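Kindly inspect this one:
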Amino acid sequence: MVEEGKKAPAFTLQAAGGAKVSLSDFAGKNVVLYFYPKDNTPGCTVEANDFNAAMPKFRKKNTVVLGVSRDSIESHCKFRDKFDLNFPLLSDPEGKVIEKYGAWGEKNMYGKKMLGILRTTVVIGADGKVKKVFPKVRVAGHVDDVLEAIGAL
């Protein structure tokens, strides 16, 4: 689990389109790293579209947005293209980065307990330190909360 005020764990993952993306690529910028369960599911689609719509506001605040799930690059490409998403979707098929950031754990789906991705957002400052962690995110209004957290940096 990441802690606010601590250095964000380094990572390199493959993005939809094939490029490798590392946290270090964004030195000097704020990074919104959001973890979501699955491409093309209702909540994940709303969340991605909300981030997409807010991209001009994030750019004005020197901030990049990165979405992370265990989905394949092929799935990410279809999801990105279907909704014309203008930020990178990163594939973490083994879940190593997801675990490092505390976004993996027990969840309750339709009354059944299982392990999976816990919808989580981590705001990383331009200095590479974790500024804010949003655990167990509720999609409605979340992007506004993230923009507010970035405005406080």
